[in-house]
Write a structure and sequence with these properties.
Blueprint lengths: L8 E9 L7 E11 L2 E10 L3 H16 L3 H4 L5 E3 L8 E7 L8 E9 L2 E9 L2 H18 L3
Antiparallel strand pairs: 1-2, 2-3, 3-7, 4-5, 5-6, 6-7
């Protein structure tokens, strides 16, 4: 997981998640922002045994992210295609169609970086600042992703 403390983000929670498939390791970290422009970032990293396995799973995971379950962002929330801010081996991005009551959008990014599948959720109300945070997180993870 990236260290985001120098950029004003505080690590709120982190840990290992149950693996979905044998030979997979899954980790999560949740960061709180010190500025209202980006209030939180959630990072999920799934390490698969090989890049071929990650490549085979990436499409299904990215497609599922396009239509999240109602309890993920709240009932009635839909996502539109977004523009990836970082180009990894594979990348897809989405953004909630409408802001919440505080003006926040959720940016959902899915990346395949070697044998890692990474999902990043960024909650923010300033698109330029949110995009900079999204790119920073992706670069930091990609620089350490096992190939």
């Amino acid at each position: 997981m990236p260290d985001l403390s120098a950029e004003g983000f505080r690590l709120e929670a982190s840990g290992k998640l149950p693996a979905i498939t044998p030979g997979q390791d899954a980790f999560i970290a949740i960061f709180a922002g010190s500025k209202s422009a980006v209030s939180s970032i959630r990072v999920e990293v799934n390490l698969l045994p090989a890049a071929d396995a990650a490549k085979a799973q990436f499409g299904a995971i990215a497609d599922a992210l396009r239509n999240p379950p109602p309890d993920l962002f709240g009932p009635g929330t839909t996502q539109a295609d977004g523009i990836p801010v970082y180009q990894a081996d594979e990348a897809r991005s989405y953004v909630t169609s409408k802001p919440d009551a505080q003006g926040n959008l959720v940016y959902s990014d899915a990346y395949r970086m070697g044998r890692a599948i990474v999902i990043v959720y960024t909650l923010g109300n300033d698109p330029a600042i949110a995009n900079a945070a999204r790119e920073l997180v992706a670069k930091r993870i990609d620089s350490r992703a096992p190939r």
